[in-house]
Recover the amino acids of this structure.
C-alpha cells in the first residue's frame, strides 16, 4: 500500500480537501509533526486514525519504521503541522526512502503558504524562486543571499517571528532596498498584507515584530531588457526620463511592484526638488 502525502490547512481549518479527509480516515497510521496539533484537525472532522510523531529530530529513525509498515501492506498518511510535507517541513527522508525501496507514493494537492503569498504580493508571478527559510547561521545565510542576487524574478522567503529582523537586515545589506511584500497569518482571521520595500518592512519590525507565520516576497528586479535594475526606483526614473507623466509612472510602478502610490509620489517629488535645488 502507498505512502500518501496529505497537505493540511495553513490557517483556516476549512482549507482541506474532501479527498484529504477520506485518506486520513482510511489510513492505518498518520505520521505527523506534532500529535497535539494534528489531533485538533482530526477531532474537528471526527477522524480517529492512530498517530505517530514524525519531526525534524526523529525523521531518519522514524522513516525506517514507517517504511517497514509500508512493506507489510499498510497505508501511511504523512502530514505536517501546516501545509504540504516536504515544503520547508519534514517529509523528504520518508518520501525518498519510500521511492528507493519501491513503495508507491501519492501526493495530494492542497494547502501551502507560498502560492497565496506570491499571488497576494501583487508582483509578477513568473518567474519566481521559492527559497523557504534561509540558514540560521549568519555566515551561511549571507552566502545564500549572495546567490539570490543572480535571480531577477520574485523570491519567496519564510520568516520566523524570532530572528526575522536579522534576516531582513542581511537581505537589505546585500540585495539593496528591494520592493517587497510581507504576508502574515495567511488564510487566518488576522491575515495581513504589508507592501512596500525592505526598508519599510524593517521599520515595521523595529516598531514591534509582527506575530504569527510570515512569508516575505521580494519583488523582481528585471529591467526592460531583462538586466538587473536598481529596483522600482530605477524603473520609475527611466519611465520619467522617457517623458511619461508622473501619474502614469505611479500607476505602472504600483501595478508592477506593489509599491504604495504615496511612496512612489514622494519619491518622484523628492527627485523634482533635488533637480530644482541644483
Amino acid at each position: 500500500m502507498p505512502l500518501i502525502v496529505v497537505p493540511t490547512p495553513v490557517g483556516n481549518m476549512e482549507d482541506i480537501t474532501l479527498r484529504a479527509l477520506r485518506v486520513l480516515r482510511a489510513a492505518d497510521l498518520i505520521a505527523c509533526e506534532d500529535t497535539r496539533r494534528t489531533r485538533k484537525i482530526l477531532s474537528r472532522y471526527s477522524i480517529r486514525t492512530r498517530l505517530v510523531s514524525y519531526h525534524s529530530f526523529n525523521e531518519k529513525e522514524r522513516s525506517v519504521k514507517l517504511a517497514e509498515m509500508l512493506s507489510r501492506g499498510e497505508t501511511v498518511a504523512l502530514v505536517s503541522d501546516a501545509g504540504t510535507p516536504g515544503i520547508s517541513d519534514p517529509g523528504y527522508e520518508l518520501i525518498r526512502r519510500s521511492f528507493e525501496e519501491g513503495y508507491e507514493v501519492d501526493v495530494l494537492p492542497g494547502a501551502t503558504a507560498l502560492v497565496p503569498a506570491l499571488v497576494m504580493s501583487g508582483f509578477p508571478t513568473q518567474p519566481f524562486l521559492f527559497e523557504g527559510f534561509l540558514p540560521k547561521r549568519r555566515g551561511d545565510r549571507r552566502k545564500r543571499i549572495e546567490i539570490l542576487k543572480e535571480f531577477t524574478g520574485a523570491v519567496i522567503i519564510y520568516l520566523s517571528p524570532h530572528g526575522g529582523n536579522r534576516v531582513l537586515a542581511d537581505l537589505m545589506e546585500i540585495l539593496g532596498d528591494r520592493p517587497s511584500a510581507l504576508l502574515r497569518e495567511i488564510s487566518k482571521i488576522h491575515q495581513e498584507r504589508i507592501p512596500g520595500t525592505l526598508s519599510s518592512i524593517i521599520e515595521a519590525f523595529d516598531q514591534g515584530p509582527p506575530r504569527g507565520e510570515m512569508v516575505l516576497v521580494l519583488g523582481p528586479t528585471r529591467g526592460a531588457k531583462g538586466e538587473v535594475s536598481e529596483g522600482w526606483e530605477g524603473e520609475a526614473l527611466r519611465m520619467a526620463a522617457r517623458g511619461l507623466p508622473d501619474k502614469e509612472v505611479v500607476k505602472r510602478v504600483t501595478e508592477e511592484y506593489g509599491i504604495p502610490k504615496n511612496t512612489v509620489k514622494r519619491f518622484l517629488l523628492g527627485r523634482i526638488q533635488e533637480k530644482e535645488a541644483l
In short: The radius of gyration is 22 Å. The chain has three domains: 3-107, 114-218, 232-277. The chain has eleven helices and ten strands.
